[in-house]
Amino acid sequence: xxxxxxxxxxxxxxxxxxxxxxxxxxxxxxxxxxxxxxxxxxxxxxxxxxxxxxxxxxxxxxxxxxxxxxxxxxxxxxxxxxxxxxxxxxxxxxxxxxxxxxxxxxxxxxxxxxxxxxxxxxxxxxxxxxxxxxxxxxxxxxxxxxxxxxxxxxxxxxxxxxx
Length: 163
Known about the structure:
- There is one protein chain.
- By secondary structure, the protein is mainly beta.
- About 0% of the residues lie in helices and about 25% in strands.
- The strands form four sheets. A four-stranded parallel β-sheet has the order 1-4-7-12, with no helix packed on it.
- The two termini are about 20 Å apart.
């Protein structure tokens, strides 16, 4: 989306449209995210898998039939293993130019893994002032009654200033 200017005021939010959607902005002049303002693609990456399934995406966490605990998703680093040794997802994506959606955590017996983070790309031709937040966090895995799923990995955030 191309904009002349961007202002996310205090308390304002710009969110991704849904799972596997990107926030892709080109701002021709200045962009500002005020204190307590946010641009968020949290949990809008690879969706949580159904029960007994490994996570989705390049670094999906381990999960599967009969497992009571599942592994967390990986992206820029390896995902965490579960307490019983189910593997976390592997490292994937680019540290220099991240664009991939975050991977989802593995699902155990009763609970779905957390969704991966989405993708945010912002190009600004003027000043870019960030006093608030720009996020693409993965979602938490669910847990209860001795069962747990893996958390999703964060997604991608890139910005380019052409001032």
